[in-house]
Amino acid sequence: MDASGQAVGSNQTPARRKIVVIGAGLAGLAASEALIRYFGSSVEVSVLEGRQSAGGRVGSFQDPAMKMTVDYCQHVAMGCCTNFLGLMHRCNLESHWDVSSNLQFVSRGFPTRHVKTWRWLPAPLHQLPVLWRLPFLPIHHRFQIQLAMWKIIRRSGGDWGEDVRARNWLIAHGQSKASIELFWDVFASSALGDTTENISMASLRHLFVDGFARHQNASDLWIPRAPLSEIFGVELVRCLQRLGVQIHFGSLVERIEQHQSAFRVVTKAGAIYEADHVIAAVPWHQVGKLTEAIPELCHLSTVADLPTSSITGIHLWFDRSIGDWSHLISVGTATQWVFKPTWQSKPILHSATDQTGSVHHYYQVVISGSQHWKHLRKDELQRIVLEELRELLPPCRDAQLVSSRMVNDPRAVIVCHPEVEKIRPKSRTALPCFHLAGDWTATGWPSTMEGAVISGRNAVASLARAEGWDFLESQPKPKQGWFAKMLMS
């Protein structure tokens, strides 16, 4: 049998396999793209989405007060996200992203520091400015961090199993409390959704090796230059539809019925879709409800108990600009990231105009792992953030806050705790025609856009395996530089 499912030597055209993808979030869209692009002549792909738009958690909303489209939460990708960037490339969406090799840090008592990697040095030496140009790190702390970083890159210094918590390893290898709080926790919280006290050392190593050390472009920031609802909900959907994917909005799936070796997918409105394969690309807390009537899959109800980390986005509109930068990383504060979205450029850069003609400048503050602030009311957390911004950014001191909105997702991402990494389910299930996709599955990545795309490709690989087709699960990591390869060998 060849990759199309047709018996070799047979003149009969085989029936195309009917694939139903449940969910039009990034994982479901990535799975659909891979299916239709690699097996388009052999499959019919239908995507069922309960909402009226695609994108899932990588979406936007219309703020009623300011009459602007803003993202629920600012998302960024990195140069190491080869699967996500590959999807953007194949769908001609790379132009919707600004790429920067610079990081900008701010901390109390220190001016904003612009940190640019040294591309004239081989990886990982090109990252030395990230450590040595940060004024809030005392010299002796920089030496501590550099020594630990060397051990991480060289994979030396003891056990790297998933049972090891990052902070325990860091303390055992000479990291002071200040070094952990001012450096390691800054990156861990923003990228992994929790502090080093809770995350696994394997996750922290993955972040620094793949995200910073492996290749010169690995740490490049890819920041959207259009609302996420436009990139994923409009442009990516159009691309998939042109390829032949059928996307049905407002089709909330109520249940899945097993029918011999295939399935019937039933929507709340009563529509029935016959499927040779189903890819469930829904959130972890919903998948069990869809499969409870199928004995081989009823165990998926336990996935709803996966512990999560929250992310809070605070949307702020000022009467003037508070800085000419695309992003800031704030250290030692509740505020973690401050973004100035470049897509707010109609008619005036980064601004909106109300009915009186006044120009309002829009910024978004992002706090990952915001469950650590759940004891505060929304107005209390916003007050703290505003006080921090006015202390850190001189232009903000005279700026008047015109409007604000806080969006908190208490189940934004699956946490990277050691015990959780062991129980994240694989895409392949007990039934060869039922597959899982979602950034909560076992992708080897945290809950990110890259993890979501990998999960979609993993689901397609599981399907292809059941059909006897060849498919590469995920795209290779960026090619290591010669020096990085020598260090990590």
Report on this model:
There is one protein chain. With about 500 residues, the chain is an alpha+beta fold. It folds into 3 domains: about 15-55 and about 225-305 and about 415-465, FAD/NAD(P)-binding domain; about 100-220, no CATH class; about 310-415, Protoporphyrinogen oxidase, mitochondrial, domain 2 (Polyamine Oxidase, Chain A, domain 2). About 30% of the residues lie in helices and about 25% in strands. It contains 13 helices and 21 strands. Strands 7, 8, 15, 16, 17, 18, 19 and 20 form an 8-stranded mixed sheet that branches. The chain has a 5-stranded parallel sheet with strand order 10-2-1-14-21, covered by helices on one side. Strands 5-9-6 form a 3-stranded antiparallel sheet, with no helix packed on it.
Could you name the key traits of this structure?
single chain, 489 residues, alpha+beta, FAD/NAD(P)-binding domain, Polyamine Oxidase, Chain A, domain 2, 3 domains, eight-stranded mixed beta sheet, five-stranded parallel beta sheet, 21 strands, globular, disordered N terminus
